[in-house]
Design brief:
The structure holds 2 protein chains of 2 kinds.
Chain A (H helix, E strand, L loop, with lengths): L7 H10 L2 H25 L4 H28 L4 H6 L2 H5 L5 H11 L2 H20 L4 H28 L5 H14 L17 H8 L11 E2 L2 E2 L2 H23 L12 H17 L4 H4 L9 H22 L4 H12 L13 H21 L11 H27 L5 H23 L4 H11 L2 H4 L10 H25 L4 E2 L5
Antiparallel strand pairs in A: 1-2
Helix pairs in contact in A: 1-6, 2-3, 2-7, 3-7, 3-8, 3-9, 6-8, 8-9, 8-10, 8-11, 10-11, 12-14, 12-16, 14-16, 14-17, 16-17, 17-18, 17-21, 18-19, 19-21
Chain B lengths: L1 E10 L2 E11 L4 E5 L6 H8 L7 E6 L2 E2 L4 H5 L2 E4 L11 H11 L4 H14 L15 H13 L5 E5 L7 H16 L3 E6 L2 H4 L5 E6 L2 E7 H8 L3 E8 L3 H10 L3 E7 L2 E6 L3 H13 L3 E7 L4 H8 L6
Parallel strand pairs in B: 3-8, 3-9, 6-7, 7-8
Antiparallel strand pairs in B: 1-2, 1-4, 4-5, 9-10, 11-13, 11-14, 12-13
The chains are: A mainly alpha, B alpha/beta.
């Protein structure tokens, strides 16, 4: 399995992508680009030779990273969806290749042209790097980062391609690369290590050009580390989860894909919470003042809000395909399966994920008991907020599940659009109500969205009864959606209509 | 070799295949017939592991296709009606890819590629790029891909669509030779003449339900209370033929025209031979006397409930 160069998928890509005329053209083009970069660098700086090489190497490496990342994202981002469109994927699925073998073949094979172009330009970039005064170890670290980035981006692209029904090269690549780049700015927050998801801080660190930024030193569980380590750790950990998702679903029909199992979803929630607390720089909590300072109760709110988003994502990742849900319903009626079955409704597992998330918050508070008392964390308020967010998430996830069991086309997309419409409508109503007075808008928010509870300082039955009423309203909505789902999946199926 | 147990597939509120139970022994060529939308393709896609059944199980060579897919795929070759091939590969590279993907022993692959290329008559295209092949050639390449790993079971969904008459004949011959080698073949088609002459068993599907399934001759025998016999004679013997045949109580539906006629006969083959001997002994100069065999099409028309739209 590890001999990827003998993997049939890899061999197929190598044969198709690297035929002599194409490989020679790509190689020549790459060298022409090298020459152009060299010339433009010379034009910009030719008095100090080391500066010239620095400029040359910097531009060339930058181009290598941009090209390799974009090419990997775009080729892997359509590696499966494109094959589905061409109807070649069915034959791949009926071979003896395991999902792991297909995944390895595609991740290493689909972007093979990018690897080839990087390999063609590597001697130039290494020589210019050394003449620019970089140590061989630094250059090795940069190219380790490049390979790791290409593998990570490829795995992300392949996962997206597995989920999407249609392929789109550029959009897919941008969908992967832009959010990754956005993580760059986290380097200046209380979670500096998370900036490692963007490759930039690590490259700047390796080249020693990061001093000019106001980035903090990343920490893992309070221990100072480097962005290089943080990046490798993040890519390895997140990549491992994506590999789990790919292995589970790669040979399935698009409509049968369910990224995570039930326990997998709970585990993923636990993992992301560990990641959140691991990359928190505890020094930021001890600051006496300043922009970066974060109070324990503030941290608890951030954790709760992020978990609220996570519940929604987990719910989407664990939606049960209509057919499986129907089978579960029949089996449950025959007392062959329980409510907490793998193919049942996703909501019980969101509750489990919430319990895990809250448990981790309490554990974090207990872990920092030497610095802050438990009271500082306002764990009761955080728990109440998490309950509100959980109930709203369950309502929304069940609504999406209802969309999935109806006959509507693209149920997930439409469901998300309906939900967006609902929240926009709530906001508009609140904005209109604000004309009648500030409290009115707050009441609308408390009744219809989880944001009302977030912005209410005193949570409790007496202090904020509308939040409680809003919670009861959502529970009522949950009940109604559950009824609608049950009505839908308990319908008897009818025989097909045939045509001559 | 292929066994479906209570196989069921539902799409939304529709039952595409309803509790299907068939067992196809080794060496059979089983023709799955029925109109479009009867559930043939769905059945084949479930049998080769491409579609998860809503309920029920499929076994190929006693391996559960859905719980042990990678092992089951070693025994299965699959070809669908509309498909694509990797156009950016050469013919031999395409087959080499699938030979490796089916995990054939490394030493056998090169020889086997040449063998199947010869079987589907693509020798002159061996080193050509696939994108330069005609549709019929690509279909033949698809057949070569399906048999490259010498599968014990071949699942073919409308395999002759897109093939010219010569290629169809070649396909029939190839399937016959595979059957002779012991391959079990499940082939679906709604063009009944395609299946004529080489299917040993048939299954008639309508609205997701298997209406009838079994050995062709057994179904014919079960569905025919009488044989249809056609005879021809020389000279003006129509009256004599009529009177002689009318005396036999097993003869019915007699229709004579000029020097030939057709009638239904409810007796055995021995009784039919005796009837012929009687005609000859009576002085009728019989030039032909044969049973009209029922075609798959006749059988389909008889068995089908015609619940079509």
């Amino acid at each position: 399995m590890l001999k990827f160069w003998r993997n049939p998928e890899f061999v197929r890509y190598a044969r198709a992508e690297l035929r002599a005329p194409r490989a020679i053209t790509a190689g020549l083009l790459a060298l022409v680009v090298c020459a152009l970069v060299g010339l433009s660098s010379w034009a910009a700086e030719h008095e100090k030779i080391q500066m010239f090489f620095k400029l040359f190497h910097g531009w060339l490496t930058g181009l290598q990273f941009v090209f390799a990342a974009f090419w990997s994202a775009s080729t892997c981002g359509q590696a499966i969806s494109r094959e589905r469109e061409l109807k070649t994927f069915d034959f791949l699925r009926t071979t003896r290749l395991t999902p792991t073998e297909i995944m390895i073949g595609k991740v290493t094979g689909a972007p093979i042209l990018a690897y080839f172009v990087v390999a063609c330009t590597l001697p130039v970039s290494l020589l210019t790097g050394i003449w620019a005064g970089n140590s061989p170890l630094a250059l090795l670290a940069v190219y380790v980062l490049l390979v790791v980035l290409m593998l990570f981006v490829s795995v992300v692209g392949l996962t997206i391609s597995m989920v999407l029904e249609k392929s789109s090269t550029a959009v897919g690549a941008l969908l992967i690369l832009l959010p990754m780049t956005a993580f760059y700015s986290l380097g200046a927050t209380q979670f500096p290590g998370l900036a490692g998801i963007s490759i930039l801080p690590s490259i700047m660190e390796v080249y020693g050009v990061g001093d000019a930024t106001d980035f903090h030193i990343p920490t893992i569980f309070g221990l100072e580390t480097s962005y290089f380590i943080a990046t490798l750790l993040l890519y390895a950990a997140l990549g491992a989860w994506l590999v789990v998702m790919l292995r589970r679903n790669l040979k399935k029909d698009a409509d049968q894909v369910r990224l995570l199992s039930r326990w997998g979803a709970v585990g993923f929630a636990a993992f992301l919470n560990v990641l959140f607390y691991a990359f928190l720089d505890p020094k930021m909590m001890s600051l006496s003042s300043g922009y970066d300072k974060i109070q324990p109760q503030g941290l608890a709110i951030v954790a709760v809000v992020l978990n609220g988003l996570l519940f929604l994502l987990l719910g989407i990742a664990t939606l049960t395909p209509q057919e499986r849900l129907k089978v579960w319903w029949r089996r449950r009626a025959a007392r062959e399966e329980g409510y907490f079955s793998e193919f049942g409704l996703p909501w019980p597992w969101l509750v489990a994920a919430a319990l895990v998330a809250y448990g981790m918050l309490v554990a974090e508070a207990a872990g920092l008991a030497a610095s802050f008392s438990l009271k500082d964390w306002q764990l009761g308020r955080a728990g109440y907020l998490m309950l509100v967010l959980l109930v709203f998430s369950i309502r929304d996830v069940l609504f999406l599940q209802w969309c999935a069991v109806t006959k509507m086309k693209r149920p997930l997309l439409k469901g998300l659009l309906y939900l967006s419409l609902y929240y926009i409508a709530s906001t508009v109503i609140a904005a209109v109500a604000e004309v009648a007075g500030n409290k009115f808008a707050e009441k609308v928010f408390q009744l219809t969205t989880p944001f009302g509870a977030l912005f209410t300082d005193n949570l409790g039955l007496r202090a904020s009864p509308l939040v409680f009423v809003g919670l009861l309203l959502q529970l009522g909505a949950v009940f109604l959606v559950l009824r609608a789902i049950h009505d839908r999946i308990s319908r008897p199926a009818q025989a097909a209509v045939v045509s001559p | 070799m292929i066994r479906c147990e209570k196989l069921r597939k539902e799409f939304d509120d529709l039952v595409a295949v309803e509790d299907l139970g068939i067992a196809i022994p080794a060496g059979e060529i089983y023709g799955l017939i029925g109109p479009n939308g009867a559930g043939k393709t769905t059945t084949i896609r479930m049998a080769c592991g491409l579609l998860d059944p809503t309920m029920g199980r499929v076994f190929v060579n006693d391996v559960d296709v859905h719980s042990d897919p990678e092992r089951a795929q070693a025994f299965i070759g699959y070809l669908s009606d509309f498909f694509s091939v990797y156009e950016d590969l050469k013919v031999w590279e395409y087959l080499d890819y699938f030979a490796h993907a089916y995990k054939m022993p490394e030493g056998e692959i090169a020889k086997r590629i040449d063998q199947v290329i010869e079987e589907v008559r693509l020798e002159v295209k061996r080193d050509e790029m696939i994108k330069g092949l005609s549709r019929g050639m690509k279909q033949r390449l698809g057949i070569a891909r399906a048999v490259i790993h010498r599968p014990k079971v071949l699942l073919l969904d409308e395999p002759a669509s897109g093939l010219d008459p010569k290629a169809r004949l070649d396909l029939r011959n190839l399937l016959r030779s595979l059957r002779d080698e012991g391959t079990t073949i499940l082939i679906s088609s709604h063009i009944l003449t395609e299946l004529e002459g080489f299917c040993t068993s048939i299954g008639l599907m309508e609205k997701g339900v298997m209406v009838r399934s079994g050995k062709l001759e057994e179904i014919v025998a079960a569905e025919s209370q009488h044989r249809v016999v056609r005879l021809a004679w020389l000279g003006d013997a129509a009256a004599q033929v009529r009177s002689q045949l009318a005396r036999d109580e097993k003869v019915s539906g007699l229709m004579l025209s000029g020097e030939e006629g057709v009638f239904k006969f409810a007796g055995s083959e021995d009784e039919m031979a005796a009837l012929l001997a009687g005609l000859i002994a009576g002085g009728v100069r019989v030039v032909s006397f044969s049973e009209v065999k029922q075609t798959v099409e006749d059988l389909y028309m008889k068995l089908s409930r015609h619940e079509v739209m």
